[in-house]
Specification:
Strand order of the largest sheet of chain A: 1-2
Oligomer: heterotetramer
Helix content of chain A: over 70%
CATH superfamily of one domain in chain C: Dimethylsulfoxide Reductase, domain 2
CATH superfamily of one domain in chain A: Transmembrane di-heme cytochromes, Chain C
Shape of chain C: globular
Strand content of chain C: 15-25%
Distance between the termini of chain A: 24 Å
Number of helices of chain A: 11
CATH architecture of one domain in chain A: Up-down Bundle
CATH architecture of one domain in chain C: 3-Layer(aba) Sandwich
Radius of gyration of chain A: 21 Å
Chains: A mainly alpha, B alpha+beta, C alpha/beta, D mainly alpha
Strand order of the largest sheet of chain C: 5-4-17-16-15-6-7
Largest sheet of chain C: 7 strands, mixed
Order of helices and strands of chain A: EHHHHHHHHHEHH
Helix content of chain C: 25-40%
Largest interface: A-B, 63 and 54 residues
Strand content of chain A: under 5%
CATH topology of one domain in chain A: Fumarate Reductase Cytochrome B subunit
Number of strands of chain A: 2
CATH topology of one domain in chain C: Dimethylsulfoxide Reductase, domain 2
Distance between the termini of chain C: 58 Å
Shape of chain A: globular
Number of helices of chain C: 27
Structural class of chain C: alpha/beta
Structural class of chain A: mainly alpha
Number of strands of chain C: 29
CATH class of one domain in chain A: Mainly Alpha
CATH class of one domain in chain C: Alpha Beta
């Protein structure tokens, strides 16, 4: 008898996720290649120099980065147009945090994943995790960071794109800050990204979750165990 | 010996006729009311009679292609860089987006944001003219030939000859920030220390200060992931709470 | 270089590679294909052509760079020795002159009242018909001399003179009688020729009434710098303003305006008194040393000190230093000398001191014109018995230059219709409305005319008040005749001009315009040649010159520099350097310059003096887009002491008013000018609103200057206007 | 006798005429003189048939001397110009003589 499955993601959700991932990867690669100043080089100036000579110069690299950036933004605009309801649901879920449940979950999960349940016991903490909704707090934290960060990156990106197309000398202060914020936002979100990739794609317990980012459905037991509050609703016919 | 394109200028010969400034504007299509080069005045106080005669000096100048270019240090993307081959401080107009960081970072005010191209702009020694085998526009047109351009490390070039012959008494404009400028003045250059201070915009300072923090955060989360990965691989067996499918 | 700056502009890359799709996959093929070689900066494809600059009279040789039919840069011609291989700021700004958006585009006929600025575009044939018809009418009603012709310093101006002569009019004026005729007259009547200064080899130079490091850049400017910095030449500058020349000279004295003659005669007093001159040269080559010795006894250094405001011992010392450096020393002849009613005599005193130094025709001194070898192209003009006897300004001043005339005297005569009426005016590339003093009189003069035709490149004020305005071509769009130029010790050379770009709009060269008019007046036979034919006849005596001109942009005649007068007589009555001028004596003019102190500047008034700046050519470049950025407006130089007394701060708007007119402009309070003198640049605040940059940018000096003239030559006297300056309450 | 008187009177008249012409010479119409010179004299004095002659070849004094006694001028015999024209031609030659104040252009 086939296992009971629950629908977790629409097709457009899946598309936008992987679209975002692909763009993020390319933008990161080219973006870091655009940074060439010893004071702020993430990996020293070797990488940018190599990448630039690969694509035939900084000019081309910037054009590629800008093109993908614009594509990335258009992708989200397209997603919003196609599945605005899904987007609203996603934002609602991500930004509703119940401190009582979510924060302890976050702390316990971090300890569990690194030091294991014994460490929690020695700290006098109940190793069982509070129940979580559609998204657990880790997912919510990263989502929040990548959304806020993403908006900053997009806005500052557009400012930089328009800088030598429409802006006059009086706006160089704004453009300067756009450069700085772009750099910082990418850095912060990237930090979160590392954890996200591990948790979602490598950590064994989230295998079903990972698969759901392709199939869109999750098995009943996974849902019950990982997202109890969402499982209760789904079982009784909710979403 | 690496090449260093530079100018050796005899300010005593300058008559402030603005030919070099006009020629530069035309040759490089510099927009209205923007300039790539200049002639600095000392506010010469009129001195009557024999005593005070002949002291006035007019000092032609432009971007000095410094050895310690504070402008390059302020550029996030390396759009402007000191060319290792001939010592020129170049602006790659394709890569520069006109963020303007480098402009206040030059203590001599040699940079500006080109109103038409909306990018950083400064003297680049007229590469198009040099490709035609011509001198930069300002050097070519100077009535008294006060400006001499060339590789100061090449004893055959006129600039080199002048540079090496007067090495000990050549003077350079001083600024509050020492950028080691490569514009050398023979004899009395008139105004000496008019250079200002290299000011790095607050946003760039913020970026520089935030870089280590960002690296720290990324490193931290990286460690976290490694820890989790380590735990997963080593202690994979002991927490099979929810055996997957 | 790590990455080539080959400019792959984003837009084409963006469009061409359809990157949006490719970017998503990031295939290696795409990335590999973009690698570009480390190309050197691409040399723009430009063609180069020789020409001669026309932004002032110097005609410096230049090389124009043209990129697909568009002028992009004017470079100096390194082979052009007269300009010492340089091109000044104005020369570089020639491109903004050619591509000035305010340039005249097609023939315009006045609608509405004169000066109202209403114009109607008409076709060329109709315009030429009208010009010829109106000229014929003037000749019918007022005889041929009833028509006035004026032309600026331009290679084609000689054809305006030719048209005038074949039309039958003797009345030709030019800008020379607003500028240098006094100086030319004085040196001509002393040495028999107007000299060129061999500044390069001079050891001691007194520069009075000239400002070679600032007013304009001539061969002397470069030579003076080389002489001072490399040959140890000493420069003494006399100028009421602390100009850049004063700032760079070894000694500067803020001489009281109008007292230069006292200074020069005091120099002569010392040189003769202390026998510092070369007695043998003076005996052999000069005439009148006895009379001069007697004459200058009264002009002691003490006397000059009191007049000029320069210490007597300095005057005496300078005289001795000047004589000690003779013959390689000089009182710099200069050019513009339209200053006082006795300017010719003032400049005679300059020439006489040079005569005492025995520097004529010798290194470091004053040089005669060198043979260039260009041939004239004579023509036999018709004769009209039905005509006035002589020029309208004849017989008013004793020594007027016959074919330069005197604009000032002509203007008065036209206004008085005495001795006869003038009702037609043809003007080419000169702007008396901006350069002649007392602009109201010039307007009155224009209003007397039945018909005025102006040929110019822009709507100057003179064109603004004309009836028919014809668009002329700039110097880079037309074929010009050859011209012989004097480069003092460096060279004597020939230049020519060929078109470097297609003519803009419906502009035509003056030669074609004049040829069209002459044809319509049945005078075509005097213009039955092309410019090329004209040039060939000019170069007849110089075999191979045309090829060399095409190859180098200049042809040098290896003519003698010094000793031109060895064994030749001077073109004076005594056939010698006339310290004492016999012809003056015969004509009742002071054979030796007699000093008369200038009028005292009335209380709380100022003397307005003239001066130039190498970025402005009198009345013709204030609208130049590039030069405007250097000098957007003119200002009134005012000494701090009177400024304080009048409550005027630097930058305040002030009103300058004289007996003839008033203007307002910003004050520039500076200690670089005497307290009894004020100064402003010429050529600003045009009435013509079709010159957007030059309209309303400061003050027009022509409106304020009073219109007196030199009693010997009729040259304008531009330093004799007293003005009051008051702060303008905004 | 009467013929002699007549002859005497005629020669006196001619003498008077030439002398007066010498004194009357000058202040003619130089411009017309240029035209007349070109029309009448230049045709021969173009360096081919006769010496290339232009005003600047002699000084003002030399011109005066030449015209003082016109009979000495070789070609004066075949002049077909009026007295007044000769005076105009002389004025032109004299006013533009080698030592006349000829100006310089603005070069």
């Amino acid at each position: 008898m086939p296992k009971l499955m629950h629908k977790r993601h629409d097709a457009s959700d899946i598309f936008i996720h992987w679209f975002n991932a692909a763009c993020w990867l390319l933008l990161l690669l080219t973006g870091v290649g655009l940074i060439q100043n010893p004071a702020i080089d993430p990996f020293g100036s070797g990488y940018p120099a190599a990448l630039r000579s690969l694509v035939g110069g900084g000019t081309n690299l910037l054009v590629i980065h800008e093109a993908i950036g614009v594509l990335w933004i258009l992708g989200f605009v397209f997603y919003l147009a196609v599945n605005f309801k899904g987007a609203r649901f996603f934002l609602a879920e991500v930004f509703t945090v119940s401190p009582g449940r979510d924060l302890p979950w976050m702390f316990k999960k971090m300890v569990l994943m690194t030091l294991g349940p014994k460490a929690l016991k020695t700290m006098g903490q109940d190793p069982n995790l509070p129940e979580q909704g559609y998204y657990n707090m880790g997912q919510k934290a990263f989502a929040q960071a990548s959304i806020v960060g993403g908006v900053i990156i997009a806005v500052t990106g557009v400012v930089m794109l328009l800088s030598d197309r429409t802006f006059g000398a009086e706006s160089t202060v704004m453009i300067g800050w756009a450069v700085a914020l772009h750099f910082i936002a990418v850095g912060v979100v990237f930090a979160g990204l590392l954890v996200h990739i591990y948790m979602a794609a490598i950590s064994p317990e989230e295998r079903p979750g990972f698969r759901s980012m392709f199939t869109g459905v999750v098995p009943d037991d996974y849902a019950k165990h990982h997202h109890r509050l969402w499982w209760d609703k789904v079982r009784t016919g909710g979403k | 010996m690496a090449r260093q394109l530079a100018m050796v200028i005899d300010a005593t010969k300058c008559i402030d006729c603005k030919a070099c400034v006009a020629a530069c504007k035309v040759a490089n299509k510099v927009p209205e009311d923007q300039w790539r080069n200049w002639i600095k005045h000392e506010n010469e106080v009129p001195r009557v009679g024999a005593a005070g005669g002949g002291k006035a000096r007019f000092q032609p100048g432009a971007c000095m292609h410094c050895d310690n270019p504070t402008c390059v240090a302020a550029c996030p993307t390396g759009a402007t860089y000191k060319d290792a081959e001939n010592g020129e401080v170049v602006i790659n107009e394709g890569l520069c987006i006109g963020c303007g960081n480098c402009i206040p970072a030059c203590p001599y005010g040699a940079r500006f944001r080109n109103a038409e191209k909306r990018k950083a702009d400064k003297c680049n020694y007229c590469p198009e003219r040099r490709a035609h085998g011509l001198e930069p526009a300002c050097v070519d047109t100077c009535p008294t030939k006060a400006r001499v351009f060339g590789d100061i490390n090449d004893p055959q070039s006129e600039a080199g000859r002048l540079y090496l012959a007067n090495k000990d008494r050549l003077k350079r404009v001083a600024a509050l920030t020492d950028t080691k400028p490569n514009m050398y003045y023979l004899g009395d250059l008139g105004p000496e220390a008019w250079g200002g201070e290299a000011v790095v915009p607050a946003s760039m300072v913020a970026m520089k200060q935030s870089a280590p923090l960002i690296k720290g955060i990324v490193a931290l989360s990286g460690l976290g992931v490694l820890a989790m990965l380590g735990r997963q691989l080593l202690a994979g067996s002991d927490h099979k709470e929810d055996g997957d499918a | 270089m790590p990455d080539s700056n080959q400019k792959l502009s984003r837009r084409d890359f963006f469009k061409a590679s359809g990157l949006i799709a490719a970017g998503a996959m990031g295939g290696p093929a795409l990335l590999g294909g973009l690698r570009t070689a480390q190309a050197a900066p691409k040399a723009p494809a430009w063609t180069s052509g020789f020409s001669a600059c026309d932004m002032c009279f110097n005609k410096c040789g230049l090389i124009a760079r043209v990129e697909d039919g568009v002028l992009t840069k004017l470079d100096p011609n390194p082979k052009f020795l007269k300009s010492r291989g340089m091109l000044c700021a104005r020369g570089n700004a020639g491109i903004s002159h050619v591509y000035d958006p305010d340039r005249l585009k097609h023939p315009l006929l006045r609608k509405g009242a004169r000066g109202e600025g209403k114009w109607q575009r008409i076709p060329w044939d109709e315009a030429l018909d009208m010009a010829a018809e109106k000229m014929a009418a003037v000749r019918r009603d007022y005889l041929p001399c009833g028509h006035l012709f004026s032309a600026g310093s331009d290679l084609q101006s000689q054809f305006v003179g030719r048209l005038a002569e074949v039309y039958g009019s003797f009345n030709i004026t030019s800008h020379e009688s607003l500028c240098l005729v006094s100086n030319s007259r004085a040196f001509l009547d002393t040495f028999g020729e107007v000299p060129f200064a061999d500044v390069l080899h001079s050891k001691y130079i007194i520069m009075a009434g000239a400002n070679r490091f600032e007013a304009l850049v001539t061969p002397d400017s470069m030579d003076l710098m080389t002489a001072m910095r490399e040959h140890g030449c000493k420069l003494v500058t006399l100028d009421p303003r602390y100009t850049k020349t004063a700032a760079l000279s070894d000694e500067w004295y803020p001489i009281r305006p109008g007292t230069d003659m006292a200074f020069m005669l005091a120099l002569a007093h010392v040189i003769i008194g202390e026998k510092l001159y070369d007695a043998q040269w003076i005996a052999e080559k000069t005439y009148g040393i006895e009379q001069l010795t007697e004459h200058v006894k009264q002009y002691t250094p003490g006397f000059a000190a009191e007049q000029c405001g320069i210490p007597a011992e300095d005057i005496a010392r300078i005289a001795r230093e000047l004589a000690a450096a003779a013959p390689t020393s000089m009182v710099y002849p200069g050019r513009r000398s339209s200053d006082y009613e006795d300017s010719t005599q003032i400049r005679r005193s300059f020439a006489i001191v040079n005569g005492l130094l025995g520097n004529w025709d010798r290194p470091g001194g004053l040089l005669a014109a060198r043979a260039v070898g260009l041939k004239g192209v004579p023509y036999d003009a018709p004769w009209y018995d039905e005509n006035h006897e002589d020029r309208i300004d004849a017989e008013t001043v004793p020594m007027m230059f016959e074919h330069e005339g005197s604009f000032m005297v002509t203007r008065d005569a036209v206004l008085a219709d005495d001795p006869y009426k003038i009702r037609g005016w043809f003007i080419y590339k000169t702007n008396p409305m901006a350069t002649a003093p007392n602009r109201k009189k010039t307007i009155e003069m224009m209003n007397k005319m039945d018909f005025i035709t102006v040929v110019d490149i822009a709507m100057s004020d003179t064109a603004w008040f004309a009836d028919l305005v014809l668009p002329s071509q700039s110097y880079l769009e037309r074929t010009d005749p050859c011209s012989g130029l004097q480069g003092s010790s460096a060279c004597a050379c020939v230049v020519k001009r060929d078109p470097l770009i297609e003519p803009l709009y419906e502009s035509r060269p003056l030669f074609d315009i004049v040829k069209g008019i002459a044809g319509r007046l049945d005078l075509g036979e005097y213009f039955d040649f092309t410019m090329q034919e004209f040039r060939t006849r000019q170069l007849a005596g110089l075999p191979g010159a045309e090829e060399i001109l095409d190859r180098d942009g200049v042809y040098y005649n290896p003519s003698k520099v010094y000793g031109i007068y060895d064994g030749r007589v001077y073109k004076t009555l005594s056939k010698k350097v006339e310290l004492y001028n016999q012809r003056y004596e015969q004509m009742g003019i002071d054979p030796l310059p007699v000093y008369t102190p200038p009028a005292k500047v009335p209380a709380n008034q100022f003397r307005l003096v003239i001066g130039r700046n190498a970025l402005v050519t009198q009345g013709s470049t204030a609208n130049n887009g590039l030069l405007h950025q250097f000098v957007p407006e003119n200002t009134l130089w005012l000494n701090p002491e009177p400024a304080e007394r009048l409550g005027i701060a630097d930058g305040d708007l002030v009103e300058v008013s004289s007996a003839v007119g008033r203007q307002s402009l910003k004050a520039e309070v500076t200690d670089k000018i005497r307290s009894d003198t004020v100064y402003m640049l010429t050529g600003f605040n045009s009435l013509s609103t079709m010159q957007h940059l030059a309209h309303g940018n400061g003050a027009s000096i022509a409106e304020v200057l009073d219109g007196k003239y030199d009693t010997v030559t009729g040259n304008a006297a531009l330093h004799q206007t007293f003005v009051t300056v008051t702060r303008k309450v905004a | 006798m009467q013929r002699k008187l007549m002859l005497l009177a005629a020669s006196a008249l001619v003498m008077f005429m030439t002398v007066s012409m010498a004194f009357a010479l000058g202040d003619g119409n130089g411009r017309k003189g240029k035209f007349l010179y070109r029309k009448n004299c230049r045709t021969c004095h173009n360096g081919a048939t006769a010496k290339d002659l232009s005003p600047a070849d002699m000084t003002q004094a030399e011109w005066k001397a030449t015209f003082a006694d016109m009979s000495k001028i070789k070609c004066s015999g075949d002049w077909t110009v009026s007295e007044e024209d000769v005076n105009d031609i002389f004025t032109y030659l004299h006013d533009y003589a080698k030592d006349s104040p000829s100006p310089a252009k603005c070069s």
